[in-house]
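2024-03-11 09:14:02 INFO worker-7 job=invfold-0412 stage=load source=structure_tokens
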């Protein structure tokens, strides 16, 4: 099946729920789009393209992809020029690169707002390690103090580096909606946190920002973005 050559709008819109794990943790956003395009092409799906001078595939991510973080509930929207049944979407999913898994797929009405326009935040599970000062009482107290703080000094970042010329001071507190201690292993000096952070066009909180703001000597061992949060939850995430 080939793409239509007419200038009309796409006929079908699918929302996909993806996860990303090793060995794809370093896969960047543009690379993921390229891999999805490849998989749809190899599965002979009629992926829709823009009508720009340099056509781009109509594949839209609800949220930017952080590099190096495991993802368990990413929402992707893909548009097609012909009607595609679910079994062919699943067949394309089998062609995704190692570490990228298609968890679910739903056809959605064109009139639904885009998932990206409804994005408001993300939930994370953060594993941390420390020293003998990492006790259950100490960590819970640090979380209480963090949530009670009116301001949290931090760095404004674009991309992955704080050393860029566009980095600067900002208040991190508005980016943190909630932090919860899940468990603490005092013998191993490790713990797990659940965090809900802002993620929209105005700013994004990061797991490392929370850990740095806690008044304990901690470092991030592993971070997982468990799900995205929306103002109006798209069908695929309900």
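2024-03-11 09:14:09 INFO worker-7 stage=emit residues=238
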């Amino acid at each position: 099946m080939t793409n239509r050559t007419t200038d009309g709008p796409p006929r079908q819109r699918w929302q996909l729920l993806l996860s990303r794990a090793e060995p794809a943790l370093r896969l960047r956003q543009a690379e993921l789009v390229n891999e999805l395009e490849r998989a749809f092409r190899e599965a002979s799906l009629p992926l829709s393209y823009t009508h720009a001078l340099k056509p781009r595939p109509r594949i839209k991510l609800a949220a930017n992809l952080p590099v190096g973080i495991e993802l368990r509930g990413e929402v992707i929207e893909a548009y097609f020029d012909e009607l595609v049944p679910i079994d062919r979407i699943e067949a394309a999913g089998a062609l995704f690169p190692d570490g990228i898994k298609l968890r679910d797929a739903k056809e959605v009405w064109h009139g639904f707002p885009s998932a990206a326009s409804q994005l408001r935040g993300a939930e994370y599970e953060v594993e941390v390690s420390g020293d003998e000062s990492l006790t259950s009482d100490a960590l819970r107290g640090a979380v209480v103090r963090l949530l009670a703080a009116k301001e949290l000094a931090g760095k404004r970042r674009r991309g992955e580096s704080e050393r860029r010329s566009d980095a600067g001071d900002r208040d991190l507190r508005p980016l943190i909606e909630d932090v919860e201690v899940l468990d603490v292993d005092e013998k191993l000096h490790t713990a797990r946190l659940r965090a809900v952070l802002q993620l929209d066009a105005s700013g994004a909180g990061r797991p490392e920002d929370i850990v740095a703001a806690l008044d304990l000597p901690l470092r991030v061992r592993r971070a997982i973005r468990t799900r995205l949060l929306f103002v109006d939850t798209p069908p695929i995430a309900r």
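2024-03-11 09:14:09 INFO worker-7 stage=report msg="The chain has two domains: 12-112, 120-230."
2024-03-11 09:14:10 INFO worker-7 job finished
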